[in-house]
Specification:
Largest sheet: 5 strands, mixed
Strand content: 15-25%
Number of strands: 9
Distance between the termini: 49 Å
Structural class: alpha/beta
Low-confidence stretches: 1-16
Number of helices: 4
Radius of gyration: 18 Å
Order of helices and strands: HEEEEHEHEHEEE
Helix content: 25-40%
């Protein structure tokens, strides 16, 4: 039993060991369908120019009031990017595009966030981790053809009941916008998170390993 426990500890140490991801943008767009490792981490910006980025944790404009990412990059597993590209393609056909607030989050950053706000109501306990730590979660909204965000009723990372998909006391416009976002995401292999209208997890991503691959900022 002790031997098994020791081996498990070694496994955890190895799986959470930090390696660095390349944040440098490719000179040409790459084809995600040519990526053979579905679980590899890749940078979304190398596969599409049709997303808007507002990576909140690379700034102090977030509920932590602190910058915890070295710079704003959106890394995700290949399988997550494939589904996200298809979802965005559908939105584009309807005159909208996805705006990203957060993507993959190394477990070291999760620990840093927990140290700032050690409350599971607001931050996932790093002992368990979150789907963000597995490269299968995105925090998003939508913008129109002019780059204007659709009215979703609350800001990103608003933790009141008004942010819930099930909250009824909202205008018809807000309810319609949230429904639009949710329906398209669910059609493309994602599932929603009831209490946060902006949070979507790739289906079955909870089975993936927590990762600690950080990134160096591009020059």
């Amino acid at each position: 039993m002790k031997k098994v426990s020791f081996l498990w500890m070694v496994f955890l140490l190895v799986s959470c060991k930090s390696t660095y991801l390349d944040a440098k943008k490719s000179s040409v767009l790459l084809d995600i369908n040519k990526e053979t490792d579905e679980n590899a981490f890749v940078n979304l910006k190398n596969y599409s120019n049709d997303f808007v980025y507002d990576m909140k944790y690379a700034t102090s404009d977030n509920f932590l009031k602190e910058k915890v990412y070295p710079c704003g990059e959106c890394f995700l597993r290949v399988k997550t990017v494939k589904s996200l590209l298809e979802a965005n393609k559908t939105f584009l056909e309807k005159g909208f595009k996805i705006k990203l607030y957060d993507c993959y989050r190394p477990i070291a950053i999760q620990k840093k966030m927990w140290k700032i706000v050690p409350n599971p109501t607001y931050v996932a306990n790093p002992k368990k981790g979150s789907i963000h730590n597995k490269g299968g979660a995105v925090d998003i909204t939508l913008v129109d053809s002019l780059g204007v965000e659709l009215n979703m009723g609350t800001k990103f990372d608003f933790f009141g009941e008004e942010a819930s998909h099930n909250y009824p006391n909202l205008s018809e416009e807000i309810i319609a916008n949230r429904k639009f976002l949710k329906e398209i995401m669910l059609q493309h292999n994602f599932k929603s998170f009831d209490s946060e209208w902006w949070h979507y997890n790739l289906n079955n991503s909870s089975a993936d390993q927590v990762s600690n691959q950080k990134w160096r900022c591009a020059d």
